[in-house]
Amino acid sequence: MRWKNILSRRRRERDLDAEIRQHIAIEERQRIDRGEDPADARANARRDFGNVDLVKEVTRDAWGTAWIDRLIADVRYAIRLAARNKSFAVTVLLILTLGIGASTTVYALLNALVLRDLPVSSPEELVWLKDPSFSYPIFQEVREQSGDLFQGVFAWTIENTNVEWSDITERAHTLYVSDEFYSTLRQNALLGRTLNSTDVGPVAVISFEAWERRLHKDPSVVGKTVSIERVPFTIVGVMPKGFFGVAAGLAPELTVPLNAIEWPRDARNRFQSPTSAWLHIMGRLNPGLSILQANLQFRQIWPRVLETVTPLTETPDRRARYLSRQTELMPGRNGFSRVRNQFGDPLWTLMGLVVLLLVVASVSLANLWAVRTSARRREIDLRLALGATRSRIVRQLFTEAIFITAIGAVLSLLFAGWGTALLVRLLSTGEDPVTIAEPLDIRVLTFAFTMSIAIAAILSFISALRPAFKRSGADLQPEARAVGYSRPAGKLRFVLVTCQVTVAVILVAGAVLFGRSLYRLVTVDPGFNAKNVLIVEMDPLLAGYRDAALTSFYERATDSFRTIPGVEAVSLSAYPPLHEQGAWTGSIQVDGGTFSSTGNSSVYFNTISPGYFSTIGQTLLSGRDFNLQDRENGVRTCIITESIARDFFPGQEAIGRTISVGRDKQRQNLEIIGIVRDAKYRRLQEPARRIAYFPYAQQGEVVNSKNLLAEIRTSGRPERIAGEVQRKLKDLDPSVLVRPEPLNKGIRDSLVIERVVAALSVFLGGAALLLATASLYGLLSYNVSQRTSEIGLRLALGADRSEVLWIVMSQSLVPLLAGLVLGVWASLSLGRFVEKLLYGMTPRDIAGLTITVVIVLTVAVVASYFPARRAVRIDPMTALRHE
């Protein structure tokens, strides 16, 4: 009924006005009929009726809609206050936008990558196998032996492939899935159909985003073809908007069957090898089955799966290791994503930092609001003296807080939209772009407005303290005006400033810690010179090159690259330095010995061409480099790093000795012809690896299964020759795809997490320090304004100005020193949560904490100096005359 009253409010108002007029008119006619003068009758009728506005107010109370008028009046008053004090309103909005916007930005990304459920039916029924990668034979056995456990089981993997859309070839994420993928997820296509077990040829389902961006929402897209790695695929369906599969942060544009195409980059058949871990496995539990019950059943199934797929031909030690492998079912409502695994911990760390910034922002607002409330004390006391109730005053103050924080929430959402897009770009690399759908969903909106309401409640509480408990009219009395400042108010502001300094110290310490960690990482010696090196990815295998033709192509390509002006050296390798193209590891044994069953003999391998070390700037310590004599029919050779020489030949000469790789028929005995300096293999964050290098001319099996990449050292910036490299290769064979990229860019991409965390922590630390400094400055400025007469009196009585300067500045020492002590203690206590994100240092970094204390102290002294300087410049006579 109340909402009906609200909707019919205007009609009721009109009826009320008409009824009042009619009532007064009837009374007026009755008085005229009794013989009164018409003018007197009208005046007497109005007087007898009473206060029209009061009658309306009472009537609206009876209707239950009077609160609307009060709310509108309160909002109008809040708008007038904001317009009258624009600087205060702008300051509050900036702090709100910064505090709520920053926290909403990180929460939006955390929600999209970590917290949000998959966009499928009943996601709570989904589970995934922990490990997380498995072979295709293991997937087959899990599917066959767990029929009573799952409604459906599927396997999937994501590859970065070359996709030809019409005449444009670009890199795109392609999702390879087993037949049960869509049926298990209970997903239907928007257009056409999904994949199923009847698909025999190369078919593909594309995402809504690919249909929209690549094919311009062509309604006849079903039946058309798109080429993936030069293989034509027939499009059979388009998925609904927002469906991204099961990997948050990755949005594959195409989905194809697992066995749709060949895998030319693999040295072994992926589908046959029981030890080739490359698939993720997910399933949907049967109804009513909890994950705890499912795991009890799965533990009975898993040993049988391993026993079935483990080859009997393996050695007892290796077979025992395979059979001892463990896994379990994990909740899959959020899916499984390497993006989440990569960015989850950093995002939680950033969320903690922005929450601390939100605390600083809230305390800053509380400080500002307390000062503003103190400045309005006479206005509030006057309204109380004129008859306003305390509850009415509190509602007005709450409306003002809600009004300004609501505007701040809207601005923070705009900031979050921009900030989320920026963060996604910062976290994305050319090879692995991060994609999220609907970053500002209902959960993020709820978060932002909840924070706003909480801050509004805090501000309202601070504002309501005085009118709720102070005696009405106390400040209207002349004798109530005291010299100095209010001790309770001063203590409150001291506590607030202490809290701000504490949190600012924590954030500045985090900024210094992450900044120093990043600096150590980017200045670490990788073992080679990455400057002015261009990495060139080529795809001759897809163009059909094999064996001698493939070797001839690589030779012609490198000869062509050498003719480019500015090129100093060119080489080939299977795995370029610090370029995350996978890894090749294995065990070695020296001088024909047997292989150890432990991991102590494990090393990393690489296949390279002559001149590789001089091209990338890796020092040859002894022996010689590969040359044209290191051919297939020559003596098998290798070059090792100094760590292999040290670990496997302690105190001995390694040159001329042999190492063995591979087992049984694949065993190779290689003569060591050189030793090079230790170097990083995949990432700067890892320690220097033990690496054995083989000449590519003697590794035909590897060369025929994996494209080699070219390294080109230039005399200037490598980006300048990228276009010429592409033209040279196109002239050589236009069917071979090429992607040049500076080696330094690949290294920068590998540091994306460290760079983003360091950059954001510096931003948050700077913002917190700025807010704390502003509050410290405001505290002293307010104290100086309240103690003007006292300072003037001191100066008039002969106090030295330097003494007054110290008295004023010393007021900042208590909150500053307390904040420093608490902040350092909290930084040491919280450091263990970020230890895994640091490189080459511990959270208890004394140098970093010292830098933090110096920074905070310096900024605080500067902030305190200016109000103190203004205090010593007070004219004593002017201050006393004013008093």
Provide a concise account of the structure shown:
The chain has 883 residues and is of the alpha+beta class. It has 4 domains: 2-64, no CATH class; 119-333, no CATH class; 341-522 and 752-882, no CATH class; 540-736, no CATH class. Strands 2-3-8-5-7-6 form a 6-stranded mixed barrel. It has a 6-stranded mixed beta barrel with strand order 13-14-19-16-18-17.
Total number of helices: 28
- Separation, N- and C-terminal Cα atoms: 60 Å
The tally of domains stands at 4
Over all CA atoms, what is the radius of gyration?
A: 37 Å
Could you walk me through the main structural features you see in this protein, from its secondary elements to its overall organization?
The chain is of the alpha+beta class and 883 residues long. The chain has 4 domains: 2-64, no CATH class; 119-333, no CATH class; 341-522 and 752-882, no CATH class; 540-736, no CATH class. Helices cover 52% and strands 14% of the residues. The protein has 28 helices and 21 strands. The strands form 3 sheets. The chain has a 6-stranded mixed barrel with strand order 2-3-8-5-7-6. It has a 6-stranded mixed beta barrel with strand order 13-14-19-16-18-17. Strand 17 (658-661) and strand 18 (668-676) form a beta hairpin. Helix 6 runs antiparallel to helix 12. The model is unreliable at 1-6, 264-268 and 476-486 (pLDDT under 50).
Question: Which labels suit this protein?
Answer:
6-stranded mixed β-barrel, 28 helices, 883 residues, alpha+beta, disordered N terminus, globular
